[in-house]
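Structure in, sequence out. Go:
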């Protein structure tokens, strides 16, 4: 189904497609609509629900050879940013929910995340290593301003001196420049700010609740000024829509102080393919077929190729052109000239309550 205008305001997805594990599809129409403070129901402004996640562990592991870290943490499942292309959308299907509107309106919150992280790092079985914050949904999505769970986790990481790489597209990360700067003093922190486009109007429809491109560049500048090594992720690169912006994004990030850069080709696993195609029909109807055709050209005739190596870069002539354009822009602006890995040398376990009892002097 293609939703006609008026589209759902402030959301990337325009529908609630059934999850791939569901046997039945229920079309509830606009049953997500709830009255506002004045008692008015607006079906084009679905509310966000925050649900408690009672996970008993916080560190997730991955064995993907093309991901830059083996372990990550995330206080949230689902993401209110609503980026229509988000590869993490299908994770909501494991909860019996939709990868569409549910992913961005039903956010599961791990209120115990800082305590769980502290327990994990305090355990003798923990071998210090770089933690990604986060490898799936954005740790600085809007609710973080109120809950402060990502900051709580960074406080634990700073106390233990455990290195971390933060990935976000929200200016809110600058709030935690003090903690990130403390870790960076021991070569134990790095931040990557994701920028998909410099076109503010395009970003508003494609990434409706993220910081604007200008604010993300400002975040790079602010973190750099605070002594935090900061890079840019041109992610995702969307063939036929944003690929021509790669040099401009690299140049703008370099002017803001970024010293490292990476890029990721658009990934459309499982139901994200139909969600993205629906968004194109609503917001880019005249370019829809060109973009889908170009996507197939970099994915060996398909809209997605899950093979390691190819899934992040694509293949074929257009993928090679994007790779060469990226590499040239990085050389021109001095990106990636050094690759010093983050250090675990500053890691230490603070004395626990029982150890304090028998060693009052520390």
């Amino acid at each position: 189904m293609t939703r006609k205008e008026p589209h759902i305001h402030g959301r990337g997805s325009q529908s609630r497609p059934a999850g791939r594990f569901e046997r039945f599809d229920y079309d509830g129409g606009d049953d997500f609509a709830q009255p506002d403070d004045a008692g008015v129901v607006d079906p084009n402004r679905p509310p966000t629900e925050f649900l408690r996640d009672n996970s008993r562990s916080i560190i997730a592991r991955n064995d993907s050879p093309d991901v830059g870290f083996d372990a990550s943490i995330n206080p949230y499942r689902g993401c209110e940013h609503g980026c229509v292309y988000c590869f993490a959308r299908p994770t909501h299907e494991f909860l019996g929910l939709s990868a569409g509107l549910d992913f961005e309106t039903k956010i599961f919150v791990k209120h115990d995340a800082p305590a769980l992280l502290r327990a994990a790092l305090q355990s003798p079985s923990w071998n210090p290593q770089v933690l990604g914050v986060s490898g799936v949904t954005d740790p600085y999505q809007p609710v973080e301003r109120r809950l402060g769970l990502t900051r709580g986790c960074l406080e634990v990481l700073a106390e233990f001196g455990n290195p971390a790489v933060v990935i976000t597209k929200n200016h809110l990360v600058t709030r935690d420049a003090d903690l990130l700067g403390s870790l960076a003093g021991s070569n134990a922190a790095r931040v990557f700010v994701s920028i998909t486009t410099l076109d503010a109007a395009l970003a508003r429809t494609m990434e409706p609740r993220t910081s604007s491109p200008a604010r993300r560049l400002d975040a790079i500048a602010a973190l750099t000024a605070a002594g935090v090594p900061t890079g840019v992720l041109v992610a995702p690169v969307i063939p036929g829509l944003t690929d021509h912006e790669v040099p401009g994004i690299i140049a703008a990030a370099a002017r803001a102080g970024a010293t490292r850069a990476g890029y990721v080709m658009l990934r459309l696993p499982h139901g994200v393919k139909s969600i993205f195609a629906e968004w194109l029909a609503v917001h880019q109807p005249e370019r829809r077929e060109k973009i889908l055709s170009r996507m197939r050209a970099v994915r060996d005739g398909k809209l997605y190729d899950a093979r390691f190596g190819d899934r992040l870069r694509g293949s074929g002539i257009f993928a090679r052109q994007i790779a060469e354009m990226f590499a040239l822009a990085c050389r021109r602006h001095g990106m990636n000239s050094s690759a010093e890995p983050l250090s675990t040398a500053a890691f230490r376990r603070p004395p626990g309550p029982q150890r304090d009892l028998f060693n009052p002097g520390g």
